[in-house]
Fold this protein.
Amino acid sequence: MKAYLFPGQGSQFSGMGKDLYESNTIAKELFEKANDILGFRITDIMFVGTDSDLKQTNVTQPAIFLHSTILAKTLGSSFAPDMVAGHSLGEFSALVSNKTLSFEDALVLVNKRALAMQKACEAVPSTMAAILGIDDKIVEEICASITDEVVVAANYNCPGQLVISGSIAGVTIACEKLKAAGAKRALLLSVGGAFHSPLMEPARVELEAAINATNFNEPVCPIFQNVTAMAVSNPTEIKSNLIEQLTTPVRWTQTMQNMLTAGARTFIEVGPGKVLQGLVKKVDTSVETMSA
């Protein structure tokens, strides 16, 4: 069975999507439609912008979404997923690929999500850190022990790699405690704020209204969602999980394990980079991985 995976923030690169735009009529039409919807030429930034330009949240999120969804649409009949999943932002790309959301509606939601998250980041100074080489349970326990600051487990990326998120003081204290507890590394990340933590609550409220006002269709195949790591096909449940995603952890390790249990043997990454293929291999080295 084939599982299609869609990357999230951090996979962007200058020149992304340019070859698609220049070589495929369908892709060019969709990119131009996106420029109209967003009200600025995001293609100019994607194709020739600097790394700094691409790191702006209002650019990064729609750019990665566009690269992934447009690439999937150019695959034609060869694109036949048995199941899909997306890492954080990638969940929106996955929902277009399994026909839960239209391309246009999803792009509007992604844009609103990016702007709402940016606003939440600016309201409270916050950050994230990658914790390597220590059991997830110890990370959870240490985060829970820090009660005077906000710090939580945010991204369960693969065994031995968990990202924490919260206030700058909370994440700093947790990093020190985790290194003392035996973590191989505790690295502060260059991110705009505390994604997938309670500090994103204002963005969650803003996005909730937009998601509830958007039509969600019956999917053609299940999506394994970040919040539960379980297969979901009910549009109402998909909506609820998508709203909760902003303030709760990305359970990617558990998602990969559940996809394997459901019969996935080939994992195809659709979009920029190869990050997700590497994470799959850290869960099970025997499966086949490839880029779309």
Observations:
- The mean pLDDT is 96.
- The radius of gyration is 18 Å.
